[in-house]
Amino acid sequence: MPDMLEDRLMQAAEVGDEAAVRQLLAAGARADQLNLIGWLSLHRACVIGHEGLARLLLDAAPATAAVADSQGQTALHYAAKGSRLSAAPAIALAVDFSGWTPLHRAAERGDIEVMKLLLPAARDPAAMLDAQHRAPIHMAANRSNAAAVQLLLTAAPEVAFALDGSGRSPLHLVLQYGLCSTTEQVVETARCLVWAAPEVQPALGILLQHGQHSSTLFADLVAHPPLSQEQWRSIPAPCTDLARALPAVLQRSTAEAGWLVGHLAEEQRARLRAAALSMARAQLGGPSLPAELSGRILALCLP
């Protein structure tokens, strides 16, 4: 009997019979049941572009919004293929029992293709929060997926340092749970978030808490927003990788460039002194080099 109900539900969805679908769901038909070829009734509804039917099926089984058929196609794929996108917002914003939207699911899987379909399908899906106050970017960060994190940052830069229900930002999650990923994955993902920091804090505080990967990330942070002398003092020394940020910092502030140099290893500082002396001699009687160019030349002398 249950199988017959699901078969009838699929048939009703195929022809857009909303009344029949409503009756079958009330009789116990399951909207999350796949047929023999891996299709859901929701997939059929999206093929014909029936918005009311899609909403009805999503209300009955919200998690089906992110379910793919045997060919890897979701409901949104079918709606997009037929240029029948009236149901797209309902699909993109469908919430399951955990408060997850399809974008949460896709971000956790790192499914960039599906994420690209979901992001423009509704208003601000990247800012939707689940029951634990997590946005999709928290899922991507937890997996150290740089491509997914960057895609979500482009769509909703304001979530870069949003805190979940446990008070953790995406950067916390990358650095805290990155032990399950390679160092390259962790650093690349964390770098996306550090670059998105509008100000030094809270990124600096988070990096100071998680020292394993921070030595290379400090350079990415200090290259952008200005730091106070107190903030520079909080960065552990020596921090040899800070040399990468010298051109950007020197262009911004000679005082900050001096504080940066103070965090380098003694060998690096000796190289810089020798290079700076040579540059000064070369410029005697001639025009001075721009700060950015001087910084780039000096940085070249560092290992």
Structure report:
The protein has 303 residues and is an all-alpha fold. The protein has three domains: 1-94, Alpha Horseshoe (Serine Threonine Protein Phosphatase 5, Tetratricopeptide repeat); 97-210, Serine Threonine Protein Phosphatase 5, Tetratricopeptide repeat (Alpha Horseshoe); 226-303, no CATH class. 56% of the residues lie in helices and 0% in strands. It is built from 19 helices and no strands.
- Compute the separation of the termini in Å: 73 Å
Q: Name the poorly predicted regions.
A: none
CATH topology of the largest domain: Serine Threonine Protein Phosphatase 5, Tetratricopeptide repeat
Major β-sheet annotation? none
Number of helices: 19
**What is the alpha-carbon Rg in Å?**
27 Å
How many E strands?
Answer: 0
Query: What's the domain count?
Result: 3
Fill in the keyword field for this structure.
303 residues, mainly alpha, Serine Threonine Protein Phosphatase 5, Tetratricopeptide repeat, 19 helices, Ankyrin_rpt-contain_sf, ANK repeat, repeat, Ankyrin_rpt
Structure at a glance:
With 303 residues, this protein is mostly helical. Helix content is 56%, strand content 0%. It is built from 19 helices and no strands.
Secondary structure layout plus pairing:
Blueprint: H1 2-15, H2 18-26, H3 41-48, H4 51-60, H5 75-81, H6 88-92, H7 102-109, H8 112-118, H9 136-142, H10 146-155, H11 170-177, H12 183-195, H13 203-209, H14 214-222, H15 229-234, H16 246-252, H17 254-261, H18 266-282, H19 291-300
Helix pairs in contact: 1-2, 1-3, 2-4, 3-4, 3-5, 7-8, 7-9, 9-10, 9-11, 10-12, 11-12, 12-14, 13-14, 16-17, 16-19, 18-19
Keywords: ANK repeat, Repeat
Pfam families: Ank_2
